[in-house]
Automatic annotation (TrEMBL):
<protein>
    <submittedName>
        <fullName>VMO1 protein</fullName>
    </submittedName>
</protein>
<dbReference type="InterPro" id="IPR036706">
    <property type="entry name" value="VOMI_sf"/>
</dbReference>
<dbReference type="Pfam" id="PF03762">
    <property type="entry name" value="VOMI"/>
</dbReference>
<dbReference type="GO" id="GO:0005615">
    <property type="term" value="C:extracellular space"/>
</dbReference>
<dbReference type="InterPro" id="IPR005515">
    <property type="entry name" value="VOMI"/>
</dbReference>
Length: 170
């Protein structure tokens, strides 16, 4: 099954889904974030999310599932569910469309992931946007990801990068 949230950004297209290897599930996550660029510069905020796949909560497997990520920003350190836990749900922080002349649209600005033991893994904070509601929870675990990405437009248009997220339950 697929879990979603209702507050994703409106721009871009759904990229390819990427799944953890059979028999593994996501127990960690990292975030690709562009820091604020300053006045008159184009911000993109959250550019990508990478799931860390494991078997039995062992983080040493080294396999990741990513879908598409924007070109800007840097990856955070991986955050792991404690006690051999795994991801079961998420919520997004999203700046609603500004729709004003010269406004800088950024869409998704951060994300939080719920672990099976109730622990929350939160991305680097952002002053922009509001948190939506939590997705439904997977009955077992998250094992795949798909992102909605606005492509890089260059100097002619406003870039937003990551807009929305779907997770796959296994």
């Amino acid at each position: 099954s697929v879990i979603t949230v209702s507050n994703g950004g409106p721009w871009g297209d759904w990229a390819w889904p990427e799944m953890c290897p059979k028999g593994s599930y996501a127990s960690g996550v990292s975030f690709k974030v562009e820091v604020p660029q300053g006045v008159m510069e184009d911000d993109t905020a959250l550019n990508g999310i990478r799931l860390y796949c494991s078997r039995g909560g062992d983080p040493s497997g080294g396999y990741t599932a990513e879908s598409q990520s924007g070109r800007w920003g840097h990856w955070s350190e991986a955050r792991w569910c404690p006690h051999r836990g795994h991801l079961v749900g998420f919520e997004l922080q999203v700046q609603a469309p500004q729709r004003r002349l010269l406004s800088d649209e950024v869409a998704a600005t951060s994300a939080r992931f719920a672990c099976s033991d109730g622990h929350i893994l939160e991305g680097p904070g952002s002053a922009w946007g509001q948190w939506g509601g939590w997705s439904p929870q997977c009955s077992k675990a998250v094992c795949g990801i798909q992102t909605r990405q606005d492509p890089a437009w260059g100097l002619k248009r406003d870039d937003t990068a990551l807009n929305d997220l779907r997770l796959f339950c296994c």
